[in-house]
Amino acid sequence: MDLTQRLEALTPHRINLELAALLSSDIRLKVLLVSGNRLSLIVTAMRMKAQRILVGAVTTELEALPYLRSGRPGLLLCNDRLDEGDSHSLVQQARLLVPDIRIMLICEEAKPDITKALQLKVDAIICEVDIGEPCHPISRGLLAIANRQTYLSPAAKELLKRQSPGNQINSIKLSRRQDEILSMLLNGDTENLIASSLGISLTTVKDHTKALRSKFGVKSKIELVMRAMRLAVSK
Asked: Which of 74, 80, 126 is closest to 102 using CA atoms?
């Protein structure tokens, strides 16, 4: 894949915006990298080490555990191809050892189990095929994490639809505006951005979000996004 024309998405300016969002959040900006893709691991680790936010960079589930216990990272970046171990097991261990950790999973397998990843409360799920696309999935994923939201890249959403054939959205009646707002929430957009994009007030967006929470039977915006994803309603 020729990514030459897409490298602008990875400029320092854009990376700095993501880091600024993470720094302004309540997340501990200490990152643990776990990946069987060694080239990607080294490049990403070098960048984070220079910014003094790297806890560890390893290629196996077992090697990651000591860093989770002693380093208490606020963010786990991993992919589903490890030299040894299983990424889903790693996520479970991370949740047990560091309850408030946030997790981004990069899916390199041909048919990743998106439903299982959501059940394990992975915060951002990105399919490798989407990396470098104009939707900037890595950026959107990090910004969603900074805002304590959940994000699925476009290919991950499509996989979720296929893995959830019993789509229950048909039983939940949404207005056109509610459908628009839900779709934007699923993309990781903030309520302020939604209001600006749709040309409506923030109060109106909050009212619609409250109505959506009621229809989906949840109490928070995060629960709303998670439940909507599990019902394969993202578009």
From this structure: 74
**Contact by Cβ (8 Å): 104, 121:** no
Nearest by Cα to 167 from 102, 231, 100:
231
Residues making up the chain, counted from first to last: 235
CA–CA separation, 229 vs 102, rounded Å?
18
Enumerate the β-bridge partners of residue 34: 58, 78
Instruction: Report yes or no on 162 lying in a domain.
Output: no
Question: Of 121, 152, 183, which residue constitutes the final position of a domain?
Answer: 152
Q: Is residue 164 part of a domain?
A: no
Q: What's the rounded Cα separation, in Å, for the pair 222 and 186?
A: 10
**H helix or E strand, kind and range, residue 156:** helix 154-163
| CATH number where 43 lies | 3.40.50.2300
Domain that holds residue 8: 4-152
Q: What percent of the chain has pLDDT over 70?
A: 84
CB neighbourhood size of 160 (10 A): 22
Number of domains in the chain: 2
Say whether pLDDT at 234 is over 70: no
Q: Which of 99, 47, 49 lies closest to 73, judged by CA?
A: 99
The C-alpha atoms of residue 101 and residue 107 are separated, in whole angstroms, by 19
Judged by DSSP in three states, 125 sits in: strand
Specify the pTM: 0.71
At 83-138, the pLDDT tens digits run 999 999 999 999 999 999 999 999 988 888 888 888 888 999 999 888 877 778 88
